[in-house]
Amino acid sequence: MGERIEIPEEVLFKPVGDEIILLNLESGIYYGLDAVGSRFWSILEEERDVDAALVRMGEEFEVDAATLERDCRELLGELRQRGLVKVLAVG
Hints:
Layout: E1 2-6, E2 11-16, E3 19-24, E4 30-33, H1 35-47, H2 50-60, H3 65-81, E5 86-90
């Protein structure tokens, strides 16, 4: 079973240098992503499919697959907890 992300309408994001700043307008929560987190966000925004985003990250960054998946899923969990993304099960 795969997962897709949805970015709620109340979430705005803006690149600032090589980072991205996220803002949830309803909660007032700001969240900053470093360069790697920003790349993951950009790929997720484009792909919407978590597994496809992980594959692309693996192609772009030299890190073992287990570490990459753990770190990206941890970030995804933080974004979900803060109401910055919704993760939907598909399939």
